[in-house]
Design goal:
By secondary structure, this protein is α/β, with parallel strands linked by helices. It contains 13 helices and 11 strands. The strands form 3 sheets. It has a 7-stranded mixed β-sheet. A two-stranded antiparallel sheet has the order 7-8. It has a two-stranded antiparallel ribbon with strand order 10-11. Helix 5 packs parallel to helix 6. The chain binds nicotinamide-adenine-dinucleotide.
Length: 347
Amino acid sequence: MYSQIKVKSNIKDYSVSFVSMTEIEKLVNENYLVIIDSNVANIFPKLLTNNSIVVNTGEELKTWDGLRIIFDELIAKKANVKTKLIVIGGGVLQDAAGFCASVFCRGIEYVLVPTTLLSQIDSCVGGKTSINYSSRKNILGTFYPPNEILICEDFLYGLPYEDFCSGLGELFKFDLLRNRVKNSSINAILSDKKSMTPDIYESLLFKIHFLELDEFDKKERKFLNFGHTFGHALEISSSYNLSHGYAVAIGCLIALKISQYLFKYDESNFETAQGIVKKLLSHTIEVQKEWFDFDILMECVKSDKKNDGNLNMVLIKEDKPVLQRIEDYSIINQVLEEIYEAIRLCN
Ligand code: NAD
């Protein structure tokens, strides 16, 4: 069994435990107010109580109007400063409900039960909550970690394969940051059903290392943003038709191509990375040319919350991540065209 991971935080320390579905079912009782993704509730009805809040998710939940649904339910259920929430769902519910928990009565306790691969492998740790506003991804948010995170692999068995592969996009990012693209487990995962817990455990440890160095994203944690500069922009340019993990995987490929032009990133590693992204993309919708429009993407990346009106990106130089300001945009234009041509016919 995998041991509990303790995460040190300047806000409050918390833990990640690997548990069974029975343990989660036992925890879900009237002492907690459960907020649960409707798709998860349909598959796991034992997680519902008389007092549950069932929410339809989708990126539209991460908006002012989406939050209103959660706040109205909290008020209707007479939640107060002592209310403890259990949030059961993927990254979207985590971001939205975590945001609500952070501001409701100036902050109430919550336990997080991530149910998608993406949320188990990556988003559950780090304490970021966020919503989108005015075409800007994750622009409003707080740092507000849960008290406890409970991971149960059984949730992944009901997850649609497209959403499972989206989660592999974040695993791909970790492989690239660790210079392990040639040893990536993604090919094995795609060809053979295997337990994901070892990959989840390792990815969390890797991310937590950066969190404990730089919880508030001022320095080292920024490296985890690899692939996200253009990833977030592609989510917006595709009107969220491209799910987060796929957008990040393409964003990683764009960053690698730029690294190749600027820092001679290894050609054969790039080819391997491109092969993995193509395989992932074969499980989602076909990418559209207009999503790669230079002007639209540049407007998105320059107004990304991690940027200051310029284009700063995490690239790979001599096998290590570096933060780089890009001034010559002609490279970007060329790279966008090359990556689109390379991946446009994956399905
Ligand atoms: P998601 O939460 O939208 O879930 C994807 C789909 O799977 C949804 O339709 C959902 O209803 C369904 N689902 C969830 N669990 C299921 C299960 N066990 N069985 C069947 N269906 C299930 O998507 P996601 O990929 O988990 O999260 C993406 C979001 O996470 C993005 O908004 C992204 O910005 C955010 N994110 C946040 C952080 C962070 O640090 N806070 C990090 C990375 C990504």
